[in-house]
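ENTRY TYPE: paired fold submission
RECORD: A
CONTENT: sequence, then structure tokens
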Amino acid sequence: MAQAYTSTADDAYITTFDVRNPWNQIALNNSTKLVDGWLSENYVQSMDGTIYTIKDPRLPFTASLTKFNDYRGTRNGKGRIGSGIDKEESYISLTGYYSNTNSPVYITTYEEMKFIEAEAAFRSNNKPKAYAAFLDGIKANMNKTGVLPADRDAYVNHASIAVGAANITLELIFREKYKALFLMPVTWDDARRFDYQYQQFQLPLNVVTNTYIRRLVYPSVETSRNGANVPDVTDVTQKLWWDQ
């Protein structure tokens, strides 16, 4: 880790697109009433103080306000609320840090590395190192997204975050990593590795399984053209080798 990323200036990201950042395209579609998705209730409630005892100051940098002047997520699997175009739920924002016209798409970031370091140190029973990396990851992401220093400091000094090295847990590390890696696909990897144990994390409505999915099945084009080499996978709840 000492020879890895040293700041967010080292982040790997994409800035060249055919037209625009795909997240900006979704935000644009929503703003022009070409309904293109909403923010999950799992995410919004983890940020707005519903689930945890503190409001996360990054929420205004990722989500749009509703017509009720608050933030409201949509339950996974439920579908839209009302017309879907009347600002009754929160969307990714045209002015959001990750979804504005000039936003890059991040591939690997400094804060991700710090949370990986925190987890590795925790599993190696080095809690002081884990705790320091945990706090560094939070602060790095807040600085990047534009959170005011006073709001950042109030958050990291809150009793639910400033727990001290002796009380750092995997739940805290995974929870804060989930927030800091907003819109990054690796959060699904982490959800599976953590067995979806985020506090009050909800299974989607109308789901065809009785538990969370762990993988996708192979597409028909793969089985038809390369069938001899395709593993026998028909169940989306079957764990991948690294998720055993």
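RECORD: B
CONTENT: sequence, then structure tokens
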Amino acid sequence: MRFLAALFLCLLPQLAAAQERPSAILVLDASGSMWGQIDGKAKITIAQEVIGGLLTDMPGDQALGLTAYGHRRKGDCNDIETLVLPGGDTRAAIANAVNAIQPKGKTPLSAAVIQAAETLKYSEEKATVILVSDGKETCEFDPCEVGKQLEQTGVDFTAHVIGFDIADPADRAELQCLAEETGGTYYSASNAQELGTAIFEVVEVNQPPVAITARVTATAVTSLSNTPITDPITWALTGPNGPVDVSAEQNPFSLDLDLGAYTLTADWLIGEQSQTTAFELFGSADATVQIVFDAPLPKASVTPSENPATAGSMIDILWAGPGAVQDFIGIGPQGATGADRWENFAYTKDGAPAALLMPVTPGAYTLSYFHGPDHLVLATADLTVTPVSASLTAPAEAPAGSQITLDWTGPGYDNDYIGIGPVAAQDSGRWQNYSYTREGSPLPLTLPVEPGAYMIRYFLGQDRAVLAERPITLTAAGASITAPETAPAGSTIQVGWSGPDYEGDYIAIGKPDASGAAQWETYSYTRDGSPLALETPTEPGNYLIRYITGQDRKTLAEAPLVLEPVTASLTAPQTAIGGAVITVEWTGPNYPQDFIAIGKTGAEGSARWAKYTRTEEGSPLTLQLPAAPGDYTLRYFLNADRSVLAEAPITLTQAPATLSAPPRARAGEVTEITWQGPDYPSDYIAIGKAGAEGSARWEKYIRTSSGNPATLPLPETPGTYVIRYFINADRYVIAEIPITLE
């Protein structure tokens, strides 16, 4: 904002002495458009701040007045008011008037300039009007014609115009004409920077320059660091008025400089470098100038422990250098550029010597010491990489899916492996199965289950390069299944089989049209022998028994199986008391882990077996009932898939119970409770805070098995409590009474 204040000062007429200063009036646009924004701030707010700066820097004896338009009424071309007449030290009055303005109306800028000129008696005395406006004339006058008339009829009249954010060329032209017809200057500004620039373009036209300087700090650094160079730096500075004295060899140095263009040269004597930069000062804000010297590269060296070196091997690289955090030793083909210069690399932070993996392709390579984030090369060394060989010995033919043993020779580098894949396979299809060479030679290798022509290959772990290969033909493996044609659903059958019995092979049951994992709804591994026990699915229907290889789920043999429905029945009371134990008679398959359960009618999932007993207990069996009353269903569940074979409804009523105890008692003591209730095993009478939930309901308790009346210990803390009768099975409350502890 000091730029804007300086601009206004520039527009005040130049006079030699205070007593000769002519009067001037500032005409301020207060039309509604002044609420528009420049850089997020209302134009009226910018104008108010600028005028505030003007008044601060303006001499007290400057006779300045203030006229505004559009600030009182909307749509009124006569809304023009002289708020402050020119006179002695009007700064405070103008500041108060400007800050009180609220833009509202039209833009009678020409009439406002005329009124200001008449107030200054422009036809009799020298007069200056400074117009600040953001738009075109919206009333009857032509600003250009008004400028001509005022120039012709005035003694020495000048109008300077500052246009705020005026985008329309026609609007700018009429304001520019107003200024030029009176010998004034038009300034166009769309942002603060342009306003500042305008100040310095016109400052010498209107009055002697206001002394504006800027504090400049110059620093010399290297390209590797923003830290100032500590060695002596010699500076040479030339500005708009010639050389500027910078006598000290300080780095950084700071000077107060006049505005303008400068050239700065820095000599780094120890670094044997000189750098020059140019800069320009536009305003009084502090400025910084940085001169960057090329940093001298640190010294380094790299020496391979082997030369030539075998492809794919790991060798030691002796190195010397700065060892910065990001430094590394890399190897790449001779003549490579960019990242190709480090096919493989090792960080210097891991110590010296550096263990570096050689490329797998033989040829001429370059070792390099790479320094810093820009990968500057500090040292190089030539290195030759020689070929590495391998061999494979394996049968020419083997059953598909079997495991063979092969002999191999080769480098046995980390993660090298022997793989098998179809002869024409590409990429990872070349190693459908594989074994790592670290397991030694001879090496076991599991073969794919699909018959056909395959290739066994020795792969380098580094980049999957093939060192050796050998063809092999895989023949089909046979299998058979012997099993009953029908069986009860959910039963366990005996299945005879023949087949390769590879690791992970299994006999499975699934629907005939099933695919994927649905082919083995139930299964048993062939390692269990032949015949093996196989549990059947619980859903009746047509199925297939399959011999499936564990390696890739390939079916080698299959046999049909029809599963017939199984039934069950339940006989139990239709009503019972909640929490009681009832007797249930049943019929059914009694498969392992089958169970009779009770759950709420309409329940789903595990809520269907709130309580249960295994059928292995025999028929009849006993079943603990839930404590809560309601409508329930008894169900016979097949354990295999929780399917229901039979169900019967039962209604549970609440077990009757009563409690009797004194309404008040002393905290921390005991009280006698007279009770009536079912007295199921582990039932208890407890006391807890009124409104308590969960285990907080039984701060203290006593089992009903202790007798009647029961002696109940009381909590230590006074308050309002509730004594409750709990059925232990579900922590279910069947009676409660309040008690106050004092």
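NOTES ON RECORD B: The chain is about 10% helix and 45% strand. Residues 1-20, 202-210 have pLDDT under 50 and may be disordered.
STATUS: closed
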